[in-house]
Design brief:
This protein is mainly α. It has twelve helices and 17 strands.
């Protein structure tokens, strides 16, 4: 079975050294791209999601390891987010900036605001820097005042927060969604961290509202899964089963319940998350190679083994095991988590650099078409897997 030392080693010997190479000491923040030849593009646009996730990563790593170099990296990331990614005049963070920090894509997306909150609150909890919490609350107010309607959270906005119907950044598979499970999930994640940081009760109320939306609008009880893309009335737009998001949601929803310390909501959430984990294992777990399929559209599985899906499945299955470890089913969850971690180390980790390939194709070969770093390829999922599993295993 898994040992905490394995996750510590992977974090400290693989992931942290790799991402240390991406720091931009000239223009701030972290470089936006590295190709499969491990060549850094120092003039690539810097995605704000990428840089927010890097801020989260170094903050969380510093919170665990307490190495001052990690704190310095986190501070470097925080300054860039605050000074270059945040729109001081109109509020909110941009989608991306140029390599030198000038605004590039000035779209204001709810998903992006949420990740900035997630990162800023982690930085505050790790360092006590009150400026980061103040900025997190600025973004919280921005989401609540400008990025939602009475029925829930919306998606894309222009620079001035007028609605942008072109939600191509979070829509896929031939649909253009007015609401997405993905954005809602990461607003939940952000508000969970904000409430952990400050215990401001209005944030707890918003968390309960989001959980209610998951239960009543997003969760498909009949099939035991989450719907993905919606119109504004929460009508599902496509038959899509996102295995990675479901297993990720299973433990992020449980974390929200833990932080709320509300027994009624704990029961409500566990009724969903137990089924989510069970169904993902039933439908998506490839017993031959011990890894998770990507997704299923109209009944057809995409059998790629995407990097972030594997990271979230290790956390999600181990979380399912921990809720009732004495049950036979729980032992199956623990074994799946351990086997997927073995798959990661044997197949997904690039031996040249310690970071992970984008995916492993069904034939077992690594997908070398996308680079090692881009706006979505970051140390958030795999770094968080290491930190979560180390902390969980250290308590046992």
């Amino acid at each position: 079975m898994m040992k905490k030392e394995q996750f510590w080693e992977h974090l400290t010997q693989n992931l942290i050294p790799f991402w240390n190479r991406m720091e931009d000491a000239v223009y701030g923040g972290f470089y936006g791209a590295m190709d499969q030849k491990l060549q850094v593009d120092q003039e690539a646009d810097k995605g704000v999601i990428l840089n927010s996730r890097i801020l989260w990563f170094y903050s969380a790593a510093y919170g665990l390891i307490r190495d001052e170099e990690l704190r310095r990296k986190a501070e470097h990331a925080f300054r860039f987010l605050k000074e270059k990614c945040y729109d001081k005049r109109r509020g909110g963070v941009y989608w991306s900036v140029h390599f030198d920090g000038r605004p590039s894509d000035m779209t204001k997306h709810t998903y992006n605001q949420a990740f900035a909150i997630y990162a800023l609150t982690e930085y505050f909890m790790a360092t006590g820097d009150g400026d980061s919490l103040l900025l997190a609350y600025e973004l919280y107010r921005t989401i609540e005042e400008k990025c939602r309607d009475e029925d829930g959270y919306l998606e894309a906005f222009r620079e001035d927060f007028t609605p942008d119907d072109n939600n191509e950044k979070l829509s896929e598979n031939g649909v253009m969604a007015g609401r997405t499970m993905n954005t809602l999930l990461h607003v939940l994640e952000a508000y969970t961290n904000l409430y952990r940081a400050d215990h401001y009760e209005p944030v707890a109320d918003k968390l309960r509202e989001i959980i209610d939306l998951f239960e009543t609008k997003v969760y498909d009880r009949e099939r035991g899964r989450l719907q993905v893309f919606f119109d504004l009335e929460y009508h599902s737009l496509i038959d899509l089963y996102s295995y990675g998001h479901d297993i990720e949601a299973s433990w992020l929803l449980d974390r929200a319940a833990e932080v709320l310390e509300d027994q009624a909501y704990t029961r409500k959430i566990h009724a969903m998350t137990n089924v989510l984990a069970r169904q993902v294992k039933k439908h998506a777990y490839d017993e031959k190679v011990h890894a998770l399929f990507n997704e299923c559209e109209n009944g057809v599985d995409d059998k790629q083994k995407i990097w972030w899906v594997q990271a979230e499945s290790v956390v999600g299955f181990y979380n399912a095991f921990q809720k009732d470890p004495g049950q036979e089913e729980a032992q199956g969850f623990a074994q799946a988590a351990a086997d997927i971690f073995d798959f990661i180390r044997q197949k997904l980790v690039d031996p040249r650099c310690g970071e992970w390939y984008e995916s492993i194709r069904p034939d077992g070969s690594a997908d070398l078409e996308r680079g090692m770093v881009h706006e979505w390829k970051c140390p958030y999922h795999n770094g968080r897997m290491c930190i979560e599993l180390y902390r969980r295993l250290a308590k046992e």
